[in-house]
Amino acid sequence: MSYDLKDYVTVAQRLRIFLERYPEGSMQLDPVEFREIEGKTWVIGRAYAYRTPDDPRPGIGTAWEVIPGMTPFTKYSEVQNVETSAWGRALAAIGIGIDKGVATWEEVNRTSRQERPKVVPPGVDGPLAKTMASEPPSDRQRNYAKSLMGKAADAAPEIITRVLGSYSPPETWSKYETSQVIEALKAEVENQPKVERTSTPGPDDWHTQEPPEDTG
């Protein structure tokens, strides 16, 4: 199953709406609980969204996270993820940011990270495939991919989906996947109509200049 992350709001967005709407509001969290279920350890959190200090019926949200986390992005930060998810669901319980659904961007993103199979070169399998699937890109490589995404604009999500099989953000890509996305984005950008500059970049135009290329 693939997900369009653009359809979901982040917990931070829900928090901003909440605090704008209820300036006296606050988020509270019960002490987390650890529980063994079918041989696995889970951490459980319950959060409360108080619209006022004496809110008689605060929004309540509950979240579970398996220990250890199932991805490099959740492992060793399970409690923090539970807290964030519980906050998001407590805010949803009082109608904050639910136009697209109750789940938040963070929850859907973690799910997509777990479900999407990694892309490896044709004919590669076994230990080498596993290594390539887990090797992360360099910061320069990832930043270059992000700059190309900005230049490709509306075409970027479709290109990423075509290369990876489903859309996921750059933080989830392996080194090989990043290199493949870069090549596809470069082809798109190179085919775009060229816009001629009327002057050479000055010292204040640093934000328009490309980072060093690192395609991996």
Question: What value does the average pLDDT take?
Answer: 77
Shape: flat
Question: How many individual β-strands?
Answer: 4
Termini gap: 29 Å
Radius of gyration: 21 Å
Low-confidence stretches: 1-7, 204-209
The number of domains: 2
Beta-strand portion reads: 5-15%
The largest sheet is: 4 strands, antiparallel
Helix/strand-derived category reads: alpha+beta
Topology pattern, helix = H, strand = E: HEEEEHHHHHH
**Number of helices, counting only DSSP H or I runs of 4 residues or more:** 7
| Helix percentage | 25-40%
Describe this structure in words.
There is one protein chain. By secondary structure, this protein is an alpha+beta fold. The chain folds into two domains: 5-115; 126-192, no CATH class. It is 40% helix and 13% strand. The chain has helices at 11-21, 78-93, 105-115, 126-134, 139-152, 156-164, 175-190, and strands at residues 26-29, 33-37, 40-50, 59-67. Strands 1, 2, 3 and 4 form a four-stranded antiparallel β-sheet that branches. Helix 6 packs across helix 7 (175-190).
Features:
216 residues; 2 domains; disordered N terminus
